């Protein structure tokens, strides 16, 4: 067995642990629950003194389109966790998604969690950086002026990876 595959107790003790210093949160879905998960992780990193950057791609771009941030919906169809006590077909009934989204927003408000637009402003004001994916923006025919002011730039995937360079960097995909 090669030496690189064998770990002794002494070798394990020599391994240095590098704390997380920077996170890049990739938000690829535009559902209320996925966008909030991304925002909460980025905000949590900032609160812990880490550097936080967000990259919105594909349907995640819906969260950073002007006038759209606070109009996101909860996914009811195909969401087994949400529908665990209801028949699957109920999730597709007219008005059910709007009802579920309204209920979720009320619960978030009770916990003093800000609306998506305000959360994005908080992340920006706290030193976080928000980016849009160039490929997805091109695919959906979005220009810089279509996006909220907090978006720092529209960048390529290669540029996104460069944001996560460095020791102690982590990528979180939602």
Secondary-structure element series:
HEHEHHEHEHE
Low-confidence stretches: none
Q: Which CATH first-tier class of the domain at 23-75 and 115-173 would you pick?
A: Alpha Beta
Largest sheet entry: 5 strands, parallel
Instruction: Give the distance, in angstroms, between the N- and C-terminal Cα atoms.
Output: 38 Å
CATH architecture of the domain at 23-75 and 115-173: 3-Layer(aba) Sandwich
Strand adjacency order, main sheet: 4-3-2-1-5
Tell me the helix content.
25-40%
Mean pLDDT: 85
Shape label = globular
CATH superfamily of the domain at 23-75 and 115-173: DsrEFH-like
Q: What is CATH's topology name of the domain at 23-75 and 115-173? A: Hypothetical Protein Ychn, Chain: A
Strand content: 15-25%
Radius of gyration: 19 Å
Provide structural commentary.
The protein has 174 residues and is an alpha/beta fold. It contains 6 helices and 5 strands. The protein has helices at 9-14, 32-47, 96-110, 116-125, 134-139, 157-163; strands spanning 22-27, 51-56, 129-133, 151-155, 169-173. A 5-stranded parallel sheet has the order 4-3-2-1-5. α2 (32-47) links the parallel β1 (22-27) and β2. α2 packs parallel to α4.
Q: What secondary-structure arrangement, pairings included, does this model have?
A:
Blueprint: H1 9-14, E1 22-27, H2 32-47, E2 51-56, H3 96-110, H4 116-125, E3 129-133, H5 134-139, E4 151-155, H6 157-163, E5 169-173
Parallel strand pairs: 1-2, 1-5, 2-3, 3-4
